[in-house]
Design brief:
The protein has three helices and no strands. By secondary structure, the chain is an all-alpha fold. The longest helix is centred in the first third of the chain and has 34 residues, at 5-38. It is elongated, with a radius of gyration of 19 Å.
Length: 92
């Protein structure tokens, strides 16, 4: 148990930050699952889901919830997933 006032306060702050960080990571995981689910659908839906996931990853990296390299790696994986999907032929 913490004895000093600052150690007690630090514990309270850490508990709040932990909950906030877990919530952010959970939303990222859900967003990535949405991207994987949208992979079967139309290309524009997939692009919208990827854009939303990248936005979440950038925000988490900016707040240091995720390491910036981790966010960059996940963004790269999502981009590769999008590029692997065959694009519909454009009709003039």
């Amino acid at each position: 148990m913490p004895h000093t006032h600052t150690a007690k306060k630090r514990g309270r702050q850490d508990a709040k930050r932990r909950l906030r960080n877990r919530a952010v990571k959970k939303t990222i995981r859900i967003q990535v699952k949405n991207v994987l689910a949208a992979q079967q659908g139309p290309a524009d839906k997939l692009q919208a889901e990827i854009r939303a996931a990248i936005k979440q990853l950038d925000k988490a990296a900016a707040k240091r919830v995720l390491h910036p390299n981790t966010a960059a790696r996940k963004k790269s994986q999502l981009a590769r997933l999008a590029n692997a999907k065959p694009q519909p032929a454009a009709t003039p």
